[in-house]
Write a structure and sequence with these properties.
2 copies of one chain form a homodimer. Chain A is an alpha/beta fold. Chain A has 9 helices and 10 strands. The structure holds a DNA duplex (24 and 24 nucleotides).
Chain lengths: 222, 222
DNA sequence: TAGATTGTTAATCGATTAACAATC
DNA sequence: TAGATTGTTAATCGATTAACAATC
């Protein structure tokens, strides 16, 4: 039923994330006036093996010239298209705490076409104000706003204990992708894409790595 | 020379991150008065297979009772020890922009023993003020502060173009672990642990997944 | 042409999972 | 004891990498 006749190619989940790194590095190179780059040179810059880069790109097409490398502007254009960055993505943020506000102002989002259209919160002190032109609205207005503005992506920046609730509400209101900053594992139907950014987990991983060679563990990794 | 006679066990890099999820889930359970849990039940909560959980834990010891599951408080205690969370970690933040300040106030860090001791910036308007009791100091004072307070961990929250510079400085001043929020790949010597949190990459991955089944790509994943 | 570098194959390496004997 | 659930083995699955023929 849902499976098309078209051949499907699998690729590692890690590839999409790396494409994003390639895109960013190429953007910087374009800015510096570099117009051709080899997988070797790009790999050096990103600490990624050149064969990994070539393989990642090969899942999507032929972008290089043998003996020459990749045309920076051309590859940028293709990656922009592959990553879906050739359009504007209207986004809402739920949670107007320190983190929610910092995220709303994060310059990196706007640069990539992610445009924060509104921030939602329950705190009536904050509702009605705005942050750099982005209105803070009451969560009760969320459903209407999502439909009115055809929002598909949302960022959750509320405390852990409210996050699942917010996710359920967003799902019911038609959101298709969620970037979650709350430190919980969210549950949702399969048609909703959820990715989490975990601020503490990585710091904890660092703490682990700082501890382990100080003779604290029975068994040590390599 | 550096290799001890002790047997070394390898385990996946992903394991440490999952231990951190287990810890968090168990903490919440302890708070709710649950005192025993099976790998099956914990897995359901975290969308992780029970065999994965048992395997992860098995790298570090025997924590469960067959037929009974795991004692929540005991496992918490062991995980706290393994993750190095049984001590205080003094941390500094470099960059007093919106993100740096939000990070400095993030309640999740303090809860885990990560204590932000100071924020460093070059902006003389900000230097001398404080955020919730955390002083903002000039970067020139950083080296002295690091030595004086025996800081080993730092968080980078400066613009991409300054991040490598800051990392080099931190390394020279004796920092051993860096959590990087700047959207660049940092280079450093092997004895310095760097992990990055990338705010845009995940949003880009979501954008990709929202685009791909809209007939945009030649080759489609599964 | 000679040199460089891609795109792709095949081998290796690493991580997850099912299955089950051990045992509480 | 019977039932439940661990700890561990072995199979499977997935991702990375070296190597090289193709070709600019």
């Amino acid at each position: 039923m849902s499976s098309s006749k078209r051949k499907r190619y699998k690729f590692p989940k890690t590839t999409v994330e790396r494409l994003s790194y390639y895109f960013r590095a190429l953007e910087e190179m374009a800015k510096r006036g570099i117009d051709t780059i080899s997988s070797e040179a790009l790999g050096n810059k990103l600490n990624i093996k050149s064969s990994q880069i070539r393989k990642d790109l090969s899942y999507f097409g032929y972008f290089g010239k043998r003996g020459m490398g990749y045309d920076v502007r051309y590859l940028l254009k293709e990656l922009r298209y592959i990553l879906g960055l050739d359009r504007e993505w209207p986004v809402i943020v739920v949670g107007a705490g320190h983190l929610g506000l910092a995220i709303s102002r994060y310059p990196g989002f706007d640069m990539r076409g992610f445009s924060i259209k509104a921030i939602f919160d329950m705190d009536t002190e904050k509702v009605g104000t705005d942050i750099d032109g982005i209105p803070i609205k009451h969560v009760d207005e969320m459903e209407h706003f999502i439909r009115e503005n055809e929002i598909e992506m949302a960022i959750i920046a509320v405390p852990a204990e409210h996050a699942q609730n917010v996710a359920d509400t967003l799902a019911a209101e038609g959101i298709k992708a969620i970037l979650n900053f709350a430190p919980v594992t969210l549950k949702a139907e399969d048609d909703i894409r959820i990715l989490s950014v975990d601020l503490t987990t990585k710091l904890e991983a660092l703490a682990y790595y700082m501890s382990f060679n100080k003779d604290k563990l029975w068994k040590i990794i390599n």
